[in-house]
Design a protein that fits this description.
The structure is a single chain. The protein has eight helices and seven strands. It has 254 residues and is α/β, with parallel strands linked by helices. It has a single domain, classed as NAD(P)-binding Rossmann-like Domain (Rossmann fold). A seven-stranded parallel beta sheet has the order 3-2-1-4-5-6-7, sandwiched between helices. Helix 1 crosses helix 8 and helix 4 packs parallel to helix 5. The protein is globular. The termini are far apart.
């Protein structure tokens, strides 16, 4: 391996779900900065258009709802026709819901699982055969601190994100022999519009988070983006089946 290109994604085509905002957008920005062509997806075309305008010529978009599993093959076909085989798949799209476990309905639980788990699996089913045929590829999932320890009020989200970690391990054992690596990133508390809104009017919660974070601060969205670049790059060529916490030490803090 050329050590000067260990972290380069030049020549790669990355499909990033939920790439129009938040962590997905940061992952897209970091991957294009590292040389990749990125295709972002989401349900809101205007949001995707603005994101592509911000990222620049190395970005494209396709409107897609991850809950529509039957559309996964057509999404992959569209990307392949426009840009060539998808070599990096980032399953980032997801939804959360804060509600006590005993008040969470079956419909609400299934909604969280459908978006976070089944939607991601359907895209793996569609994209992985292309990667296997080429003998290489990288599939990334966005897990959560809720994959690693108990957080009250998010039972369905916790189940979904814990399920993702299990799925990563199984997929890694099945796909790694074909040259397709499968990994996850577990973000800690990151400074985003969503997290700022969640902290508004709740100083106790913010203090609790900072208090249990050894680095005593929130992360930057690009911290997740650069972690994704690493896991998708040649530098991580022998890394498969891991869940990498990017959390300022939260998961090991006291």
């Amino acid at each position: 391996m050329d050590k000067t290109k260990a972290f380069s994604l030049t020549g790669e085509v990355a499909l990033i779900t939920g790439g129009g905002t938040g962590l997905g957008l940061s992952i897209a920005r970091c991957m294009t900065a590292s040389g990749a062509k990125v295709v972002i997806t989401g349900r809101r075309e205007n949001v995707l258009q603005e994101a592509v305008k911000e990222i620049g010529d190395a970005a494209d978009y396709v409107v897609h709802d991850v809950t529509s599993a039957s559309d996964s093959n057509s999404l992959i076909d569209t990307v392949v026709k426009r840009h060539g085989s998808v070599s990096i798949l980032v399953n980032n799209a997801g939804i959360n819901m804060k509600k006590p476990a005993i008040d969470t309905t079956e419909e609400e639980f299934l909604s969280i699982l459908t978006t976070n788990v089944l939607g991601a699996h359907s895209l793996v089913r569609a994209a992985a055969p292309h990667m296997i045929e080429r003998g290489r590829g990288s599939i990334l999932f966005i897990a959560s601190m809720a994959s690693l320890f108990g957080i009250p009020g998010v039972v369905a989200y916790s189940a979904a994100k814990s399920g993702i970690v299990g799925m990563v391990r199984t997929l890694a054992t099945e796909l790694s022999p074909s040259g397709v690596r499968v990994n996850a990133i577990a973000p800690g508390w990151i400074e985003t519009a969503m997290s700022r809104k969640a902290m508004e009017g709740d100083p106790a919660r913010k203090a609790k988070i900072i208090g249990r974070t050894p680095m005593a601060k929130f992360g930057d969205p690009d911290d997740i983006g650069w972690a994704a670049v690493y896991l998708a790059s040649p530098a991580a060529q022998f890394v498969s089946g891991v869940c990498l916490p990017v959390d300022g030490g939260v998961s090991i803090g006291f």
